Amino acid sequence: MIRNVNRLNHVSRILSLLTLLLAFVCAMGAPLAEERAMTGSGKWKAKCPKISAKPLVYGVGSSTMGTSLGKSLKSKLKEKGIGFRKWGKASSGLARPEFHDWPKSIKQVVREKKPDIFVISLGTNDFQALYNKGKWIKLKQRELWKSTYRSRIEDVLEKASGRDRKRMVVWITPTIFNSSKAKRAGKWIHDLIVEVAHDFGGPVFVVDAYERTTKNGEPLQFFKTAEGKTLSIFGDDKIHLTQAAVEHLMARPVLKLIEPCLPK
Predict the structure, then answer these.
(1) Is 27 found in the same domain as 84?
(2) What is the pLDDT of residue 50?
(3) Quick one: which H or E segment has residue 174?
(4) Are residues 223 and 123 part of one domain?
(5) Domain with 97 in it: what CATH number?
(6) Contact predicate 83/258, CB 8 Å
(7) DSSP-assigned states of every residue in the chain
(8) Which has the closest alpha carbon to 55: 81, 88, 75, 87?
(9) What is the pTM of this model?
(10) 52-56, 62-66, 73-77, 170-174: which has the minimum mean pLDDT?
(11) Which of 177, 156, 173 is nearest to 250 (CA)?
(12) What is the radius of gyration, based on Cα positions, of the chain?
């Protein structure tokens, strides 16, 4: 009887240790996933790239960058004496290069403006078929769609970061809205941006606007500020974010990432 009790106690201790080990692994998983999404590739997690004494931050993107996001970034950076320029093209993204070719535009910006940091806000207009060499890749062609879109993200990062991959790039993931295509493709685009940024090998960082505005694949309607206020995320069209949402969920996180790398 004593032997059986000892055996049960031994098994119980082993099960307790396994439970603690599993809890530890699970606890470690969440912050690592968040760190991966928010900081970028390995060696750049705690390190800034070389920035000039008078840096230029350049924002590229669709209508949000052309209006509310660009306005907020310019205002905040001006307060710090940092130059900011932007190129916003309404309805643009990576799905329709025949409408606007962003890799080509970014290459032009690098050649003419030589920015120290790129802030990219692209993806929200891409919940659609991809135009590819005179043909269309539809959303139902899931794997081909994803592999093609991945290559376009990589192309943008190659152009933005430079041949030596030393220029800092911050990519803001897309937000979704209440449509079946947006809900389906939004998660794909978000995951691809995070994965490519993580594996890129340069100072590429991600601001996860998707996670901040989406829950269980559905767009959230409200967010809470650091001061405890509850504000609307979307404007009247239910697609574009409000100025307050853009500032709190996009601009401020971008500034938090780049400020440690700016000259004091």
Answers:
(1) no
(2) 83
(3) none
(4) yes
(5) 3.40.50.1110
(6) no
(7) -HHHHHHHHHHHHHHHHHHHHHHHHHHHHHHHHHHHHHH-SGGGTT-PPP--SS-EEEEEESHHHHTHHHHHHHHHHHHTT-EEEEEE-TT-SSS-TTT--HHHHHHHHHHHH--SEEEEE--TT-SSPEEETTEEE-TTSHHHHHHHHHHHHHHHHHHHHTTTT-SEEEEEPPP--SSHHHHHHHHHHHHHHHHHHHHS-SSEEEE-HHHHHEETTEE-SEEE-TTS-EEESB-TTSSSBPHHHHIIIIIHHHHHHHGGGS--
(8) 81
(9) 0.84
(10) 52-56
(11) 173
(12) 22
Q: Whole domain around residue 138: which residue ranges?
A: 40-261
pLDDT tens per residue, range 200-259: 988 999 999 999 999 999 999 999 999 999 999 999 999 999 999 999 999 999 999 999
Give yes or no: residues 69 and 194 share one domain: yes
The residue behind tokens 């697609």 is: 239
100 residue type, one letter? H
Whether residues 31 and 54 share a domain: the answer is no
Give Cα 52 distance to the centre of its chain.
Answer: 24
For residue 50, give the DSSP letter.
P
